[in-house]
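Please go through this protein, sequence plus structure tokens, and consider how the sequence yields the tokens. Keep your notes short.
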Amino acid sequence: MLNILLKEVASFFNSLVAYIVIIVFLTSIGLISWVFPQTSILEYGFAAIDPLFSTAPYVFMFLIPAITMRTFAEEYKAGTIELLLTRPLTDLQIILGKYFASVLLVILALIPTLTYYYTVYILGAPQGNIDTAAVIGSYIGLIFLGAVFTSIGIFASSLTDNQIVAFIIAVFFCFCLYDGFSAIASINVWADYSYYINQLGIDFHYSSVSRGLLDISNVTYFLSLITIMIFLTKLALESRKW
């Protein structure tokens, strides 16, 4: 698995994919967080970087599928998937190697945003007037969210040999699982059940973790969703052998 992970990471950085993803992510988040007046941290009025954490999920919806769309689709199209599957590795090891390589790239894209925290920490009145614990919780939430979106993207890539189709499928699934259940729950026909429907969506658990509620139910939800997507990816790979 480690060999697959290192190979994928090297592949990312030997092409323009990693650099483009990181640059686009930082540029878009930077503009939203600091430049656009409606969402600017400078206009927020509080020593917080909440605009970063509220907009990052929607940026992730497009950037993470752009990272993962090539993981299996490219192997299918190039005809190298058969060679990969004949290596002394299980399907699960191959999937996890590609999965963790993509998650690592997402985390690397997040690291430079720590400068936003430092900037607000310095500019706060008084200096340091920022809820560091809440920021840590929000970053943990973003990492979980990125891990879930990555698992969805890996699954989408395992379904097709067309990278654009894999990208579209992944964006669709990410959007539906993030916002879909809350949209359904908002329909005024569910009465008391709307709360439970809302709990099925990623947004509910991401918001909870971002508020510092890192309890076992939220962690279990994220890990369960990741496990389901990896299992479905394994089934998709196995179907190629039939």
Remarks:
- The chain has twelve helices and no strands.
- The two ends are 24 Å apart (CA to CA).
